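note to self — DONT lose this again. spent like an hour looking for the file last time. sequence + predicted structure for the chain T wanted, 343 res
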Amino acid sequence: MGYTVQEVTGDASANTALALFIASFVKDGGLRRPMDGDDCAEVWRKRFTWWWDENPSCRDDSPRGFILITSEGEIVGFSGFIPLDYEMDGEIIPALIATTFFVREAHRSAVMGLLSRQRSLGRSYHIIDGSPSPEMRTLLNKLGYEHAGERFQYYFPLTGFGGAATQLLLEQAGLSLSLPKRKELLSSFYLATSPEEIETIPTNHDSKLRRRITPEYLDWLCRVGSGERSFFGLCDAKGELMAYAVGIYKRKLGFCLCLLEDYMDFRPQEGALGQLIRMIMEDPIGSGVARDTDALALSVLGDSEEYQQKGIRRNSNLYFHLPEGIDPSSKRCLPIEGDLALI
């Protein structure tokens, strides 16, 4: 059987046939662990809108993905991308988040057609794959992708769950991090609960590859995705962002965690991220944390020089491929870099 690989083009409304294919694929049991809405074409069209139409990093020439089509015109496979801007010393490095790699069982022999197109993009784009299956992990290793390293999680209990006293016990057990000593912040410093409250965002010039943080990016990240989320930003007297975190909520067995999985410390010498976490712990409701939240959880990927204590080890499925000339050791990884927070 002959196949063709076509690029995904147009806005979300132009990809109705693709949304119908994905929903049908899930209904037929093609997805190992489906989420709510994965079998609904309208949900996928909404996700396309988030990824491509509303995404400030998605430009007219940004790759959106590839569709595998039989000689009879039937869609039997899809490999999607979510464009995002990264930067290194002020230079934009375009990136693609791999998402939704589906191929009908009867057409798996044509998988390499999709993968070869993705691989060709690696010459110009930083490609990230954040939720690969065991089979994909094996394949990504063969294709030369880098693994982001182990993920470690640290906990910061809020007032209703023991607060500072409980945190001290967790620190002693290696399950939390020592926060900077409490210091009186200027009364003009403030905690922003929306990106709109930030005046300026500094640029890092430390030769590290990381996400490009702009007001448009932060606004988009806080609006998209099906899960509840909160924004926390520590700003100085001039409204310059010192540190921020985006929290995503996870509820299980009667507990609620606010997972700080997208964050940045623009003033690490001042311990700005630690100060932000301390401010949230001392006034969770005023900081915009959901009322039933028991603790904050900070995830760290890789061997970080900043975090010597090892918290609870969690699985890390994050892989990445860099354009030629960029040292993999320069990349700063975050747990949120995969697609799960964007669906």
